[in-house]
Design goal:
By secondary structure, this protein is mainly α. It has helices at 23-31, 43-56, 67-80, 95-109, 116-136, 146-172, 179-188, 190-205, 207-212, 228-244, 246-250, 252-263, 266-269, 274-294, and strands at 7-8, 11-12, 214-217, 223-227, 300-304, 318-322. The protein contains 14 helices and 6 strands.
Length: 325
């Protein structure tokens, strides 16, 4: 896909609609990508979007479609096409698909009264979704071996289950905590477990980048070589975003439920309403939290040329690379 800026009125081929140098611009950019409708786009529909953006709208030609349609096609490509490979990302592991698949799992994780076995099962399912998302949205300028993928997945699932189990046992076995407080604290257990496991999941699934480096580019788009320093920066900023992500997903819903319990007798009168309310709060947390976490840092990062390895050949003071999701 051609990423050169091509002005067509209010539309720019291959460019985000909002300024990616600002947090608000990145937040709007990723919110636009998580619409569930993009999950339903077929490969042929996505090919039509790419064709429209790459071939039908040339410099100097009149626009044949409304600007709204151009932006819709652009964000369908952002949501479902990998920026490095140009291949279609499987629907369930695209950002809108991952969010939708995570809603019931995350809601069930913060429900009170989960047993250790059930909580571990939810962690496995959640980390399986995360592992697929990490792999399908990794920086794909270099290949990742099957052994690295399997090792990353097993390590991430093990970390999630271990952290959750250790914290659960610490709370359960504490004689200083009342039963009601233990029940409340249990609803917050997924946050530290998922925050730590998400980070380890991403690092292990993308450890090939740390070993092999990632491709960096000059300002004109030409390759400047492969850099381990750029890989470390990409992993660091993605890890920070994975720590941010669970806050609205695993803190906001249980806090919201606690507030509802304090100000109303909804759950007393309608005990079965707790689950749908939690699902609604989890959905809000996911649809706000994921774009906020992913957009916390620019997708396209830069690195000073003097920080690169000797084998790289930058043409300017900075090189650029894809952070990955």
């Amino acid at each position: 896909m051609n990423h050169n800026k091509l002005s067509l009125g209010m539309y720019h081929v291959g460019q985000p609609r909002w300024d990616q140098n600002t947090l608000s611009g990145r937040l709007k950019h990723f919110i636009a990508q998580v619409h569930p409708k993009y999950i339903l786009y077929s490969s042929s529909q996505l090919d039509e979007c790419k064709l429209a953006l790459n071939e039908h709208y040339k410099e100097g030609q009149a626009q044949k479609h409304p600007v709204r349609d151009l932006w819709r096609a652009q964000y369908a490509v952002y949501a479902r096409i990998h920026p490095d490979t140009g291949h279609v990302v499987p629907a369930v592991f695209s950002m809108p698909g991952m969010i939708l698949a995570s809603v019931p799992v995350c809601a069930l994780m913060v429900m009170p009264g989960n047993s250790a076995l059930l909580g571990s099962f939810y962690q496995v399912v959640n980390q399986s979704i995360n592992a697929g998302f990490n792999y399908c949205n990794r920086n794909a300028s270099l290949k990742t071996s099957t052994a690295q993928m399997v090792g990353g997945y097993v390590g991430a699932v093990g970390a999630a289950v271990t952290v959750a189990s250790v914290l659960r046992n610490a709370i359960t076995n504490s004689p200083r905590i009342s039963a009601s407080v233990k029940r409340t604290l249990g609803t917050f257990l997924p946050f530290p477990a998922v925050a730590s496991a998400n980070t380890l999941n991403m690092i292990l699934m993308r450890n090939g980048e740390l070993f092999n480096g990632i491709e960096v580019f000059n300002a004109d788009g030409s390759s400047a070589g492969v850099s381990h320093a750029a890989a470390r920066h990409a992993i660091l900023y993605t890890a920070l975003s994975r720590i941010i992500m669970p806050v609205p997903v695993f803190v906001f819903p249980p806090v919201g439920v606690l507030i509802i319990e304090k100000i109303s007798n909804l759950f007393t009168r309608f005990p079965k309403s707790r689950l749908p309310v939690t699902v609604i709060l989890s959905s809000l947390g996911l649809y706000v939290g994921c774009p906020l976490a992913v957009g916390a840092f620019p997708q396209k990062l830069s690195l000073p040329a003097d920080k690169l390895e000797a084998g790289c050949k930058p043409s300017g003071d900075l090189v650029f690379f894809n952070k990955g999701l």
